[in-house]
Amino acid sequence: MELNAGTVASLLRVAANESATLAQFLNDLDGWDGSDCDTGTNAAHTLASMASAVERLDPVSSFASGLEAGVDAGIILAQGHIGVIITAVLSAWSKALNGPGQITPIQLRRMLCAPNAVQSDSRLTDVLLRTHLSNAIVTVLDTARTAATDLGDTIESNEYLVSWYSLAAQEGLIGATNERTGRIDAGASVLTILFACFDSVVSGQTSVLESLAHMLSELAENNGDIPSQNVPAPNRAFSVDIVWQATATDADHFFTSIELMGARLSCVGMLDPFGVGMWRLHIDTSAPLSVRPKTGRLIRFQVADARPDEMLGVDELAEEGITHRGVRLLERRPMRRVERARVLVCTRAPGLIEDVARTGAIVLYNPSAEDGAGIMEIATSSSTGVSLFVPCDDESSTLGTMLASRLNAPQSLFDPEPADATSSTDAIIVVAQSNDELSAFYVAHTCAGYFVPQPGGHKVGPTMERLLTQGASQALENQVTYSLDSDDDLAISQVVADIARRNPTQFRLLLSAHDGPDLVGLVRQLVMHADSLLDDIDVIDGGQAGRSLIAGMWA
Known about the structure:
The chain is of the alpha/beta class.
């Protein structure tokens, strides 16, 4: 068959559906050694977003244009390490093609062999060498590449080549599976599924996916142990997602600095003819601010707490075992991540990022409308279809209102959604009425810990919407915030006295970039004088522009 954009769209849609169906199984595989049981979910979301983007193209457009559209979508919309790795694989395929035109078996082999995780003359152009890959992923890619290379110059057809490549990838997964423990690598499994879906689409045979299910079942037979619930190492305390525009040279230097820090990096990017690229990075680090780019143009800096600890457990409500395509994949109940409310909190105070992330919220540092599509994807990928957007100022409040209204806007007749695209028409963004940093922090502290009611999914969306709406309103009623003029001691004393008259249970001070210990000392003295029952105040070195903020909270 002729390979075109329609082939890419079908590949990604089939892979998205297959990953979504297998998400429980893949998430369970990702439950070892403090990992967070989300590889399957992240892969399904990423592939679905890519598929929707490619489905907007004319199906007879070139295969290369389909790959490029998928990569562009992945850079903005990919989720987790696996999402970035999938995007990097497709990016390597895209770069290996010589533009549009019919693809011969020799060209296709060059494309399939492009994702090289072992060696390369250019560390930058092959971003997989910059990405922290498991040994199993390296084995899968290397085994498939070697098998395709060993075919020689005589290749029967594209269909034969893709099938050979996919089978070799499966052999790589089998070889990489731990014989003693039976542990199967979740990320390597996702790539094997992706390649099998390519084979199925090109050959037109669903039996390929049935054979894959049997292979996974046989691998999982010895995997009877329940994954451990170890807390991640301290250098993986936070996950940072970055969308960044920078030159190839700046990107190379930045990637090297991250490697020297010992942080775990996954990255992908596409360069324009002028050598400027749009880059996507997913980083596990103990200090989010240490990986904030100092050059280029930062479009997204997103931080989340990566420590699942007690949030992982056996899904007691799930059926015993997992079956897919009539094949039993798992005999026990799977591990799963206990779901909490999807809360997106805006901040312009770099020193507040870690504190907000520890509440369980997703932190958006300096969000802007330019990243509207990415923020929308984060919000609408909530398992319940409901998310809470928490502004920190008027600008972010306008952004939240715009996103919420766009989600509920009727679809234009001139820009219809593809028939198989993931629908977000039943998704809801609740916008909190916060308009300062400390109010946003308190809303996060109140709402981000809410557990998703059972049985979960969109069925509990109305309940989740009610909980988040009420929780945000209650939090704002239980806090008052003032800005402080650090040069006016009298005004500061009046502010503290006004808060103290409301009998708060806690004072919180957010220091701006221009204030320091003198203001802390003054406020601490005033608070202790106004309310002798309080032991101290909570001081956060926010580092934000403008004035410092003080807040009083009460239960």
